[in-house]
Design a protein that fits this description.
Strand order of the largest sheet: 2-3-4-1-13-16-15-14
Largest sheet: 8 strands, mixed
Number of helices: 6
Number of strands: 16
Structural class: alpha+beta
Distance between the termini: 18 Å
Order of helices and strands: EHEHEEEHEEEEHEHEEEHEEE
Shape: globular
Length: 322
């Protein structure tokens, strides 16, 4: 079986593309690689309603090929947010579905907060310095555009499977990891490991001595059991998917939220060498494919893509290698 690539794009729907670029391009110094109006063919393949138009910006950290960001502003403005789990929001941190985008930053972490504050993006809590086993990190979660959770971290001591050598190349890195709250670990292993061919670089429950610390970091009540399941393309430290499972405290499913046309973290894009074979494997195990393989002119390039529903309310776009 041939594996899919690491995450190529995390797509985020935004109300104001210019404001989002002030954060991700002007402040975080991610490079704009392309800007274009999405074609109707692409929006149809994404399942976006007729009559909706979209402006797209693709960004990377110095052209790095994975862990890139795709911002999309829809018109008319969407009414649905993928996730709203701030203090006044209706969604809980344990609800099953997409969660956050992660970025590495340079020390001190307060410099990151100081750079974001003038734009109105503020930390949800104090930055936390912590050691779990041999891993030493400093992390803070910030509410980004339209409440999107952004986790900024300093990898004081991180394994090579987590932190790419030389990262961050600027004040902020590419996206090393996206996080998803998982409802079913067994079904998730089937999807990511057995069908997509990604490698589990971590698959373990948090040890009891670190449980309260991890609970504080993830915003759940102390005493909650947490299992971390982290999938990566072999040999690639960036573009990973981190699944968090909360056992009996797992919340409701954010059904139908993660999809293009909504505000927030709405699509995961990976490359596949053979969409037909991937489609066959996924259908064999009962995964929904709302858009079978189709060739479209996106408004920027021509590509063959397929859209797939994952096991935890994720929405995937698989693009065939050319």
């Amino acid at each position: 079986m041939t594996a899919v690539s690491a995450l190529i794009f995390a797509t985020v729907g935004v109300r104001d593309l210019a404001a989002a670029l002030r954060l991700f391009h002007e402040t975080m110094r991610l490079r704009i690689d392309a800007r274009y109006r999405a074609s109707r063919a692409l929006l149809d393949a994404w399942g976006v309603a007729p009559g909706v138009q979209a402006e797209v910006a693709e960004l990377s950290c110095n052209g790095y090929a994975v862990g890139r960001l795709r911002l999309v502003q829809y018109s008319p403005e969407p009414a649905i947010c993928v996730r709203v789990d701030e203090a006044a929001g209706p969604d809980q941190p344990t609800d099953v579905g997409p969660k956050a985008l992660d970025f590495y930053v340079r020390p001190p972490i307060q410099a990151t907060l100081d750079a974001l504050a003038p734009l109105g993006y503020r930390a949800r809590s104090a930055a936390v310095y912590h050691q779990i086993g041999r891993t030493v990190s400093e992390e803070v979660v910030v509410s980004g555009p339209d409440g999107l959770p952004l986790l900024f971290m300093i990898g004081h001591v991180h394994a090579a499977t987590s932190l790419r050598p030389g990262s961050p190349d600027g004040p902020f890195s590419e996206i090393p990891t996206v996080s998803v709250i998982a409802g079913d670990l067994q079904r998730s292993r089937l999807f990511y490991r057995d069908l997509l061919g990604l490698a589990a670089v971590n698959d373990a429950e948090t040890a009891a001595q670190y449980r309260d610390l991890v609970d504080d970091l993830t915003g759940v009540p102390r005493g909650t059991r947490v299992h971390f399941l982290n999938f990566a393309a072999p040999g690639e430290a960036s573009g990973k998917v981190l699944l968090l499972h909360f056992f009996e405290r797992t919340g409701r499913r954010l059904a139908g939220r993660m999809r293009p046309g909504h505000l927030g973290f709405s699509l995961l894009t990976h490359r596949s060498p053979d969409l037909a074979e991937l489609q066959r494997r996924l259908l064999q195990h009962g995964f929904e494919i709302p858009q079978p393989p189709v060739s479209v002119d996106t408004g920027h390039v021509r590509q063959r893509l397929m859209r797939v529903c994952g096991p935890n309310e994720e929405m995937f776009e698989f693009v065939e290698d050319r």
